């Protein structure tokens, strides 16, 4: 039987209206625009309004992707949302989005793989399509990470933003996703985590709120090394050479990490989609936001080979190599 591939029909994204620049941050955090730009490449981030949720942003991104694909929500047979900032504990945000789109009845669930959430979700969706189980799938990555920022902690306050991205996948005889690689190593939990949770009893240190804890320097080192081997693994899994790649669409956490991966692949920065300057780190939202920007700006064209990769808390790391 001929191979079935998952093909991206269209993309969509959504960002909160409010923009917080580095200069805005300088007013209430002990930091500077220069420090943030030099260390991370970030110039601004979008921040969700009060009451604006991950589900709101996901629904908007999904509707834009569905419209661009010319697909009705009722045609979907699977919805997967990568997020670590769900609206509520349950039902999953994927279920909330499903109902708002009017796709009731199909399977819907969240994937929590921190910043790798979207690429994980894409990997899972690809397996459903390849197995013949699903024909049209909505995959999203979305976060309202600023909800867990303590704005007095400059080490993390400057790094994160909110946003959502989505793709509509279709089963196709044409490629499509060639390969996905998903990994995790829970041994690194202490380097990047949020300790607040349900089963531990919602405990956190007093006066700190629900906050992200991160050892920035260590995360940086492991991320660069891990992404180096991830991109090699992905090329091998797809049976391709780096020279066949048209675009690198990386997780947007830090420009220096992105540059290191591009260098490893021998790709010029002209072949790399960079949105970290405008969006900061939107965790699971980052790769689909970058992808939608790349498609809608006309940079990425049909038939081109894209390498998507992400790294985040867990640690988790994941990639997808596909023909758009
Ligand atoms: N503004 C100004 N100064 C800051 C600051 C801020 N926002 N945050 C930290 N500093 C200070 C530190 O206190 C330290 O001061 P000191 O030298 O007097 O002690 C100095 O800047 C250097 O801090 P350090 O943490 O060593 O900087 P760094 O070069 O490692 O850059 C990160 C910090 C967080 C930007 C960088 O480590 C990073 O991006 N790591 C990866 C994070 C990441 O991607 N996380 C998500 C993964 S999904």
From TrEMBL:
CDD domains: KAS_III (cd00830). Its EC number is 2.3.1.180. Gene3D superfamilies: 3.40.47.10. It is an enzyme of class 2 (transferase). It catalyses: malonyl-[ACP] + acetyl-CoA + H(+) = 3-oxobutanoyl-[ACP] + CO2 + CoA. Residues 109-186 form the Beta-ketoacyl-[acyl-carrier-protein] synthase III N-terminal domain. Residues 252-256 are annotated as: ACP-binding. InterPro entries: ACP_syn_III_C (IPR013747), ACP_syn_III_N (IPR013751), FabH (IPR004655), Thiolase-like (IPR016039). Residues 235-324 form the Beta-ketoacyl-[acyl-carrier-protein] synthase III C-terminal domain. Its main location: cytoplasm. It is found in: Cytoplasm. Homodimer. Belongs to the thiolase-like superfamily. FabH family. This is Beta-ketoacyl-[acyl-carrier-protein] synthase III. It comes from Dyella flava.
């Amino acid at each position: 039987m001929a191979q079935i591939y998952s093909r991206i029909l269209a993309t969509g994204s959504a960002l909160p209206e409010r923009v917080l620049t580095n200069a805005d941050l300088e007013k209430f955090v002990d930091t500077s625009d220069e420090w943030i730009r030099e260390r991370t490449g970030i110039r601004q981030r979008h921040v969700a309004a009060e009451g604006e949720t991950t589900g709101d942003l996901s629904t908007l991104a999904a509707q834009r992707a569905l419209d661009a694909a010319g697909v009705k929500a009722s045609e979907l047979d699977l919805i997967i949302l990568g997020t670590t900032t769900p609206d509520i504990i349950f039902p999953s945000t994927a279920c909330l989005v499903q109902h708002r789109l009017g796709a009731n009845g199909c399977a819907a669930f969240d994937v929590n793989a921190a910043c790798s959430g979207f690429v994980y979700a894409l990997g899972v969706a690809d397996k459903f399509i390849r197995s013949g189980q699903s024909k049209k799938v909505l995959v999203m990555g979305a976060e309202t990470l600023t909800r867990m920022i303590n704005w007095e902690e400059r080490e993390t306050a400057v790094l994160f933003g909110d946003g959502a991205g989505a793709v509509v996948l279709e089963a196709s005889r044409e490629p499509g996703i060639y390969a996905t690689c998903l990994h995790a190593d829970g041994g690194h939990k202490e380097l990047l985590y949020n300790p607040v949770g349900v089963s531990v009893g919602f405990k956190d240190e007093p006066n700190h709120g629900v906050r992200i804890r991160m050892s920035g320097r260590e995360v940086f080192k492991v991320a660069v090394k891990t992404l180096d081997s991830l991109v090699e693994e992905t090329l091998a899994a797809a049976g391709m050479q780096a020279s066949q790649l048209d675009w690198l669409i990386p997780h947007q956490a830090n420009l220096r990490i992105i540059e290191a991966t591009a260098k490893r692949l021998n790709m010029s920065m002209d072949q790399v989609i960079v949105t970290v300057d405008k969006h900061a780190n939107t965790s699971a939202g980052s790769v689909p936001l970058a992808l939608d920007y790349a498609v809608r700006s006309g940079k990425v064209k049909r038939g081109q080979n894209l390498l998507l990769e992400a790294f985040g808390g867990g640690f988790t790391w994941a990639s997808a190599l596909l023909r758009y």
